[in-house]
Specification:
Elements (H helix, E strand, L loop, with lengths): L2 H19 L3 E9 L4 E8 L7 H16 L5 E4 L1
Parallel strand pairs: 2-3
Antiparallel strand pairs: 1-2
Helix pairs in contact: 1-2
Amino acid sequence: MSDVTARIEKVIESDVRPVIESHGGGIEFLGFDDESGVLKVELTGVCCGCPGAAATIRNMVEGVIQRSVPEVREVVRA
C-alpha cells in the first residue's frame, strides 16, 4: 500500500465515513490512480440512489480528502 493510499483510507475512515453514515449511507474506497490523481469510490446505502450523491462527492468528499491528500485531483463514483 502506498503512502497516498494509506492517507486516503485514513481520511475516509476518520472524516468522511462518519458523516456519510450519519445520513444512512456508506462509502467504499475502490482505488486511486497515482498518474491521474483520480480517486474512485462507491456510495452505498441510501446514498447509492440519492439524487444528491454527485453533489455529496463534489462538495463534501472531494474537499475533505483534498485538504489532507493534495495528490487527489478528483473523486469519482464508480
